Amino acid sequence: MATDRIRESDHMVVGLNQTTKALELAIASEVFLAKDADRRVHSKVLALAKQNNTPVTWVDTMKQLGVACGIEIGAATAALIAR
């Protein structure tokens, strides 16, 4: 399952601001985006990911992504960080 990569990672960021920053710094190795996140979130993250050739993995819901990230609330985005 796609969310297993996040669950098993020690190097990740969660949320729009942190994901955006990781993409802008070109340190994100993969981005996770919840399908039910706001369209403005989708467009911003997708544009940055495309610019950096960063793969995007879609997750069905914000709740599923939040659980995979180990937080009790939903998450619109998350990213694995290249180390």
TrEMBL record:
- According to the record, the segments passing through the membrane are none
> By its UniProt entry, which InterPro entries does this protein fall under?
Ribosomal_eL30-like_sf, Ribosomal_eL8/eL30/eS12/Gad45
What protein am I looking at? Ribosomal L7Ae/L30e/S12e/Gadd45 family protein
In terms of Gene3D superfamilies, this protein maps to: 3.30.1330.30
Domain (Ribosomal protein eL8/eL30/eS12/Gadd45): give its ranges.
Answer: 6-78
One family from Pfam that matches here is Ribosomal_L7Ae
